[in-house]
Amino acid sequence: MVAFTKLELPPAYRAVSLEIERLILDGTLKPGDALPSETDLAGRFGVHRSTVREGIRQLETEGLVRRETRKRLVVAAPDSADLAPRASRAMTLQQITFRELWEAAMVMEPLSAALTAARRTDAVLAELDDNLARTEAAIAAGQSPVPLDMEFHSLIAAGSGNRALILAREPIGQLLYPAYVAIRPHLPQSAGRLMTAHRHIVEAIRARDADEARIWMARHIEDLNRGWVLCGLDPDMSVANL
Q1: Which regions span the lipid bilayer (predicted)?
Q2: How far is CA 65 from each of CA 4, 26, 52, 76, 90, rounded to the nearest angstrom?
Q3: Is 216:204 a contact under the CB 8 Å cutoff?
Q4: Which of 159, 204, 217, 235 has the greatest count of CB atoms below 10 A from its CB?
């Protein structure tokens, strides 16, 4: 007799969320489109309203739908702010190390700077100049420049115009934030080096010099690894321990 394998069927609420997700991903439902009411969806799927409600909750968690009012749901397009926390948690659970994050940053950050230099707009340049001024003021006041450094890298990523790059680098940036915080108090020269690198990167972007922007961003990211080593920290430390 043939041995049949028992089917593992998804829960009904998951089947509902997967079908709506399919319609979103294939473009049948577009960002901004309103979803039918829970009652209407329950009738269409042949399930209870409570099942639809659980399916919708799953989609909200994934950033695929959002509530405009208590009863009105619309399709949403997840951005880096939606996706980065989930990706960061996954990398933390996978015990991703500082070395792995730094290696990824060494690829993405110089590329981001080069693309921004090639494509930059006056608006992007104005935002970077403003960030430079605020960073310089923070350092002069004895404040940590780390939050502004994170903003700097996010601005450059946005200026690249490459959505895949923006989405990919955001969780890595979030996970590297504690690394910057950890080493800065032990390296008083780090603020000055950061400021020097930022100025050169912005000037290269201003001049639309992609090669120079790439070179200075690579030096800037190399500095993070150098600081990590100078502080005697293990590059193979899991980010969960930062």
Answers
A1: none
A2: 38, 15, 13, 5, 22
A3: yes
A4: 217
For residue 89, the number of C-alpha atoms closer than 13 Å in the C-beta half-sphere is 4
d(CA 75, CA 83) in angstroms, rounded, equals 16
Query: Are the C-beta atoms of residues 201 and 213 closer than 8 Å to each other?
Result: yes
The pair of three-digit structure tokens given for residue 105, joined into one six-digit string: 């940053």
Q: Which is more confident, 188 or 137?
A: 137
Cα 10 → chain centroid: 30
> H or E element: which one contains 147?
helix 146-160
Q: What is the pTM of this model?
A: 0.72
pLDDT band, residue 7 (cuts 50/70/90): low
